[in-house]
Structure formats: structure tokens, C-alpha cells
Specification:
The structure holds 2 protein chains of 2 kinds. By secondary structure, chain A is an alpha/beta fold. Chain A has one domain. Chain A is built from 13 helices and 23 strands. Chain A has helices at about 15-25, 30-35, 55-65, 70-85, 125-135, 140-145, 165-170, 175-185, 185-190, 200-210, 450-460, 465-480, 485-500, and strands at about 50, 110, 150-155, 155-160, 175, 215-220, 230-235, 245-250, 255-265, 270-275, 275-280, 285-295, 305-315, 320-330, 335, 340-345, 350-360, 365-370, 380-385, 390-400, 410-420, 425-435, 440-450. In chain A, strands 5, 6, 8, 10, 11, 13, 15, 16, 18, 20 and 22 form an 11-stranded mixed beta sheet that branches. In chain A, strands 4-3-7-9-12-14-17-19-21-23 form a 10-stranded mixed beta sheet. Chain A has a two-stranded antiparallel sheet with strand order 1-2. In chain A, α8 (about 175-185) packs across α9 (about 185-190) and α11 (about 450-460) packs across α12. The N and C termini of chain A lie far apart (about 50 Å). Chain B is α/β, with parallel strands linked by helices. Chain B has a single domain (about 1-265), classed as P-loop containing nucleotide triphosphate hydrolases (Rossmann fold). Chain B contains 11 helices and 12 strands. In chain B, β9 (about 165-170), α7 and β10 form a beta-alpha-beta unit. In chain B, α2 packs across α3 and α6 (about 150-160) runs parallel beside α7 (about 180-190). Chain B is globular. Classes of the chains: A alpha/beta, B alpha/beta.
């Protein structure tokens, strides 16, 4: 349960208005057709509490007060905000979009339950639970079946964290970020901004100023987390941004596998999602972080959709630490995302497995950074880009071997698959080697789904769409197999659904 | 079962098939023989519905349906199966997964329930024995890293699994050594039944020693220039296509009368 918000309601917008606008939009035939494609595109009609649109120091203070935060955190936010004012939006990515009006965004939106925050699942607004049902994540059943502990972030606040007691037995802390601020301030203060400082980049700095909630994980020394930890993010409120902050700390010799899933309703306007994820793996610790991202991609003409501008970075702080990123990116209108590893400990390992799909007018500029500082550090990058429709796909990756990284190794493999004649695939690798003993390899291929493959599948009875889905899943298999089993199945389905209408 | 009536087909404006007529009854095995470039593969592709082939004249009916109006997957579900001359590789998708998806797509289209994983695997193991397919190959990517012989065996294995009404075997003997040829032929023969028809397309007679057809048709320059029983294949092997080529160059109408005389 998130912290009880005691601050007065600053502003409650007219939800009925927002809801009716959605309904009329969904009645249009084109939207109807799309709702088949984007199955998570529903809107939950529950009372929402908004901060007024726009950004200034008062809003930052409002968010902080709403969460009853300690003074140091407010100061940190304000420093970030003041720094943000000096920054300008990055333009180097191969994406184009209408300028974002940062003063038109609501920086805080939360479901308004009758009495403060729910104390147990029974007290959660039934409509909210319905939302999760529709997403296919009934919290209790699914969590129990899959042995997954779920922390669901709905717009800006964390709604429910399951299995917390069971985790507490082994000393694992898994809670919403705002709760962690209240209950484990020493850990938050120690690690917040230690991997992604508030000065890092335009979007991360904005997040540092206005982040509303997210998840917090701490695995004590020597503990192997007994279950997959999972967070589902969903943007529901109109005209709101989502700025969640996730912090995962794996203490010495511990292990954790963490998965996040993301969806958003279909809306005509673009919505901003600027999250920050920080991972810290200490000596001999391992973090496996998987993402299945299915934010609303906009319609086939490029109207609406999420701007997904996310900073994710992990620090292998101790010797033999390991961080592995796996991402399946099928959603969002524009994606700007480079989950990275700083390999500081000797013999530490960084991995990045990615499947990104751009259909219709989607644009994705995604990849990774592997920064080798320690001796004999190793990194592996496997990137699979799929472009269809008029989708544009860029792999942008940096492999940096610093002076002290004696005997460092990297292997990069970038494969692109093209479907149709109007899409694009681009590969932009940056390789910077400052130590002569390093070994860096880069392999890249580009292929097209062959007419002969399609015909072979269809001759056996598969429809053209099923055939494409099958071939694409085969192409992405190397990455999908890195996902926890039940999510791999979900990701496979998602790839198929996202490609509907890509051929023929 | 299948009726091809005066079929004319073009590829990029070039006439390839120039008036083919052919009728296959249930249970019959017909062989189409002919040299390279005679239009054998075009015939197999037009029957299975590949893009890029334009019918300018004629019709094909299959079990009373207008075959040319059907999508390739609809033809598959109706019971048309093509064993490819060059089976295609699909990386990352296991052979069994692929086949189960195909089998269940057909079942669904035909109003049957999908086969469970257990029932499917039982069936697959049974049918794999028919062509002595190494069970290991079932788990590998579709045709990925298969030898030429393994690919052809895999085609017949798929045929056994999908149980078509009309099986078209396009140069199934190409690239096979004699032992593999025997295994594949034995598999095909085991699948012969009074309800299943086959169209065996080949360049060489040797396949027909193992899969003995009921009828043999000689395809030359887009026309069937001679039809007969299995002995025609042997005669062709001895005499070659040269005489027939000469006959064919007399023109379509004369070839027609020649064929008529042969059939008489």
C-alpha cells in the first residue's frame, strides 16, 4: 500500500468529462478497429486526483508534501528542478515528434479512493482491480500461480504489493518507492541518484524533480530472492505524465529477477513517460531486469501514443557482479531508451537482450551502453529490431573500454528484420577502446521476411498474419528465451498482436 | 477430385503453361514428367496458390470448389499439400511447434477443436517413424541445418501429419541418394489410400520405380504432349524427350491428336 496521503486535495478534475471524451473516441470505427489491435487500450473510470497542469517549484513541493517526504528529498528534487531549467531536450536521437509542452502536463495524478489509501486488496477500488484483470494480471490469482510478487503502479501511486510478508521472511524489501522513503530512508538516501545522478540528462533530471512513485527493492547479502518480483505500470489519467522511479539494490552475493510490464489506454494526445531505473549490484550479486513494454503506440497515422523517454542504468559496483537487461519493446509512439551497465567491479558482467518492434508510424531509438571500468569485465549485447509499416528503428549502442579495463571483452550482435518496403532500420554503434588488451566484436545483419518463407507457412495452413508472427518470434527467440517463462509467452503474443496489419 | 481445364498461366507476361487439362480421381497417383523449363514447378505453384503466377485462361476445380479463388492457407485446409522441391528454413521455430501451429490452424478452419500438445506429440512420434525421421530433428528449427535428404523426409513427415487429400510432390527425388530415395518413397507409398490422390512431379523416371503411378503425363513446353500408364515413364527413360519434342513442335493441335492416339 502506498503511503497514506494526508495533504489536502489540491485539484480534482472532472473525470466524467474525460471519460465521455474517451467513449466518443472509441465509438469511431477506426478506434474500434484499433482496439482489436491494442488490447490494453481501455480507460478505467474512477475518481482521480490531479495536481494542476504545469511545472514550477510549487508543484515540486506539492508532490513532495503529498508524499510526506523528508526535507533532504525535497531539496534533492528542487536541485533537480533548478538544474532541469538549464537543460534543453536532446535532439541527437533519430526520432521526430511534435514539441512537448511541459507546462500542459499534470505531474501528479492518483486514483482517489474513498478513504486515503487502501490497507489491503479488499479495500482497493474494484474498478482498479478490474483494470488489472483486463490486463491479464489479477493480482492474487496470477501472482499466486506464477509465484510472482506484484507491485502495481497505476498512474503515479503504487496500489498494491503482494507477497510482501513472504518476502519479509527472507529479509527482502519490496515496496512502493514512496513507502521506502518513509520506512527505509537510509537506503533510499544512500542509493538514490548513485547510478543516475539528478544532473544526468534532460528526462532523468525532470524525473528527479517530479517522480511520483515507483518500486523499491532491496535484497540483503547472500539472499536469493525466492520469487520473481514484478511491477505493472499503467497510465490511465488523461493529460498526465508518468514519472516513476525504480531502485533495485542487490547486496553482496544476492540474486533477484525483476520484471516490469507497461500499458496505457488509447488517447488522441501524446502522453509523456519519463522513468528512471537504477540498479545497484554489489560484490557477487546478480540482477536480472526484464521489461515488456506495451505502451499505446498511437494509431496507424501516428496520432496519439506514449513518448517513452526512459533512463535505465545499472552499476556493477563490486567484483563479479552481474546485471542483465532484457527488454521487449512493442509499444509507444516514440521510444528513447538505453538500458546500460557500468562495469566497475573486476570480472563483472553486463548483458543486454532486446527485441524492439516498430509498426505503423512508431519510432524507436534504443540500445545500450556498456561502460567497462574493471579488469576482465565482459558484456554481451543482442539486439533484434523489427520494422514494419512505416516504422523506424534505430539501434544505438556504446561500448566503452576505459584505460583500466584490462582484458575486457564485448560481443555485440545487431539483427534487423524488415517487413514491407516503407520501414527503416538503422544501426549506430559507438565503440571506444582505451585499453589494448580488450577484445570487442560487432556483428550486424539485416534481413527481410521472405516471400518464400511466407508461402511455405501458408501452404501448410497458417494465415499470413500467423506466419509473420511465427517468423518474427523465431527471429526474436534468442532474446525471448531470456525472459522468465510466463512472460516469454506473453511477449510472444504481444509481438503477434503488434504486427497485425503489417502485411497484406 | 481435381480437374484442371485448359489452363493457361503466365509469369511476368511470359506464357508458361499453354493449355493444360488434367483430371485426377480419388486414390489415383499421377506423374508429371518433363525436362527443365517445361512448366512442372509452375503447375505445382499454381495448384498451391503461390503469388506471381497469372492465370490467363482456364479453370481448376478441387472437390467442387473453384481452387483459384482460394487463398493458399484455405487450399491447405481443404486438403492440398505441396512437398517443396526446396523446403524453406525458418530459424528459431522448432519443427514440431511449426507443424502443430499449422495442423491446428487447419483443424480450426475446418471446424475441429485444436489438438492438445500430448495428442500432437503422440501423433508426431508415430508419423516420424514412417519416414525414419530422427526425433532430434523435430526439435530443431524448421529445416535449419537439415541435410538435403532430411529436408525431403521432413516434407513427407509433414504430409503424413497433415493428411492431405491431394499431395503434390515437386521433384521430391532431387538431391536424394538411393537409400534416402527408398525411405522417402516407402513413406509416400504408406500414405497412398483410396481417398488420397497424388501428383508426382519429376524429371527422372527413377522415382517412379518406387512410387508407381497410375498415369504418366509428359509435360513439354507448357503442354501435356503424351499421357499413358506407368510404362510410358520407362519408355521415356529409354528414348528421352527428343521424339516428343519434335512432336510438340508440330503445334498444339497436332500434339492434341497425337495424345489422343496414344490414349487410344
Amino acid at each position: 500500500m502506498s503511503n497514506s496521503s494526508t495533504a489536502a486535495v489540491l485539484n480534482t478534475t472532472d473525470q466524467a468529462d474525460a471519460a465521455s471524451r474517451e467513449t466518443s473516441a472509441q465509438e469511431a470505427p477506426i478506434e474500434e478497429a484499433l482496439s482489436r489491435t491494442y488490447e490494453a487500450g481501455f480507460v478505467t473510470d474512477i475518481a482521480q486526483e490531479y495536481a494542476p497542469a504545469g511545472l514550477n517549484e510549487d508543484i515540486v513541493r506539492f508532490i513532495s508534501a503529498k508524499k510526506n517526504e523528508p526535507e533532504w528529498l525535497l531539496e534533492w528534487r528542487l536541485k533537480a528542478y533548478r538544474h532541469w531549467l538549464k537543460l534543453s531536450e536532446p535532439t541527437w536521437a533519430k526520432v521526430s515528434y511534435e514539441p512537448i509542452d511541459y507546462q500542459a502536463i499534470h505531474y501528479y495524478a492518483a486514483p482517489k479512493s474513498p478513504e486515503n489509501a487502501p490497507k489491503s486488496l479488499d479495500e482497493v477500488d474494484p474498478k482498479l482491480l478490474e483494470t488489472y484483470e483486463k490486463l491479464g494480471i489479477p493480482l492474487h490469482e496470477r501472482a499466486a500461480l506464477a509465484g510472482v510478487a506484484v507491485d502495481a503502479v497505476f498512474d503515479s501511486v503504487s496500489v498494491h504489493t503482494s507477497f510482501r510478508d513472504k518476502l519479509a521472511e527472507v529479509g527482502v524489501l519490496f515496496c512502493s518507492f514512496s513507502e521506502a522513503v518513509q520506512e527505509h530512508p537510509e537506503l533510499v538516501q544512500k542509493y538514490l541518484g548513485s547510478v543516475v545522478p539528478y544532473t544526468d540528462n534532460f528526462f532523468a533530471t525532470l524525473n528527479s524533480a517530479v517522480f511520483s512513485d515507483g518500486s523499491f527493492v532491496y535484497i540483503p547479502p547472500g539472499v536469493r530472492c525466492p520469487m520473481e518480483l514484478s511491477t505493472y505500470f499503467r497510465i490511465n489519467a488523461a493529460k498526465s505524465g508518468q514519472f516513476e522511479r525504480t531502485l533495485v539494490i542487490a547486496d553482496e552475493g544476492s540474486y533477484v529477477s525483476y520484471l516490469e510490464g507497461c500499458t496505457a489506454p488509447m488517447r488522441d494526445e501524446n502522453q509523456l513517460h519519463a522513468a528512471v531505473v537504477e540498479l545497484v549490484a554489489l560484490k557477487d550479486a546478480e540482477i536480472k531486469y526484464s521489461t515488456v513494454q506495451n505502451w499505446y503506440p498511437g494509431d496507424e497515422h501516428g496520432k496519439g501514443g506514449i513518448y517513452n523517454f526512459v533512463t535505465k542504468r545499472g552499476l556493477c559496483g563490486g567484483d563479479r557482479a552481474k546485471i542483465s537487461w532484457t527488454q521487449v519493446e512493442t509499444g509507444s509512439a516514440v521510444t528513447w531508451k538505453y538500458p546500460s551497465c557500468v562495469l566497475k567491479g573486476d570480472d563483472s558482467v553486463g548483458e543486454f537482450y532486446s527485441v524492439a518492434l516498430s509498426n505503423h508510424r512508431q519510432q524507436a531509438d534504443t540500445g545500450t551502453k556498456m561502460i567497462h571500468l574493471g579488469k576482465r569485465t565482459r558484456s554481451t549485447i543482442v539486439s533484434k529490431g523489427i520494422s514494419a509499416g512505416r516504422g523506424q528503428q534505430t539501434y544505438r549502442g556504446q561500448v566503452s573500454i576505459r584505460k583500466g579495463a584490462k582484458g575486457a571483452r564485448n560481443h555485440t550482435q545487431c539483427d534487423s528484420l524488415l517487413i514491407g518496403g516503407e520501414c527503416g532500420a538503422h544501426t549506430v554503434p559507438y565503440v571506444d577502446v582505451r585499453n589494448r588488451s580488450a577484445k570487442v566484436e560487432h556483428e550486424a545483419t539485416t534481413s527481410r521476411i521472405g516471400e518464400d518463407q511466407l508461402f511455405y507457412c501458408r501452404q501448410r495452413g497458417l494465415s499470413e498474419e500467423d506466419a509473420v508472427s511465427l517468423i518474427v518470434n523465431g527471429f526474436a527467440k534468442e532474446v525471448l528465451k531470456e525472459l522468465p517463462m510466463e512472460f516469454a509467452v506473453e511477449a510472444q503474443k504481444l509481438l503477434g498482436v503488434s504486427l497485425e496489419g503489417a502485411v497484406g | 477430385m481435381l480437374k484442371v481445364d485448359n489452363l493457361h498461366v503466365e509469369v511476368d507476361g511470359t506464357p508458361i503453361l499453354k493449355g493444360i487439362s488434367l483430371e485426377i480421381q480419388p486414390g489415383e497417383v499421377h506423374a508429371i514428367m518433363g525436362p527443365n523449363g517445361s512448366g512442372k514447378s509452375t503447375l505445382s505453384y499454381i495448384l498451391s496458390g503461390r503469388d506471381g503466377y497469372t492465370v490467363t485462361k482456364g479453370a481448376i476445380t478441387f472437390l467442387g470448389h473453384d481452387l483459384l479463388a482460394m487463398a493458399p492457407e484455405e487450399r491447405a485446409s481443404a486438403g492440398v499439400f505441396l512437398a517443396f522441391q526446396y523446403p524453406v528454413e525458418i530459424a528459431g521455430i522448432s519443427n514440431v511447434h511449426f507443424l502443430r501451429a499449422a495442423l491446428n490452424a487447419n483443424r480450426t478452419r475446418n471446424g475441429h477443436s485444436a489438438l492438445s500438445a500430448a495428442a500432437f506429440m503422440k501423433l508426431a512420434r508415430e508419423k516420424a517413424k514412417l519416414v525414419e525421421l530422427d526425433p532430434e530433428l523435430m526439435k530443431r528449427g524448421v529445416n535449419v541445418g537439415f541435410s538435403g535428404g532430411e529436408k525431403k523426409r521432413n516434407e513427407i513427415f509433414q504430409m503424413a501429419m497433415l493428411e492431405p487429400k491431394l499431395a503434390i510432390l515437386d521433384e521430391t527425388d532431387s538431391g536424394l541418394d538411393i537409400d534416402a530415395l527408398k525411405v522417402v518413397s516407402a513413406g509416400v507409398n504408406a500414405l497412398r489410400s483410396p481417398e488420397r490422390s497424388m501428383l508426382v512431379i519429376t524429371h527422372y523416371q527413377r522415382l517412379l520405380d518406387h512410387i508407381v503411378p497410375d498415369y504418366v503425363h509428359v509435360l513439354l513446353d507448357g503442354r501435356i504432349v503424351r499421357s499413358g500408364d506407368a510404362s510410358l515413364a520407362q519408355r521415356l527413360e529409354d528414348e528421352g524427350y527428343a521424339d516428343l519434342r519434335a512432336a510438340s513442335s508440330m503445334g498444339a493441335s497436332q500434339a492434341e491428336s497425337l495424345r489422343a492416339s496414344v490414349e487410344r
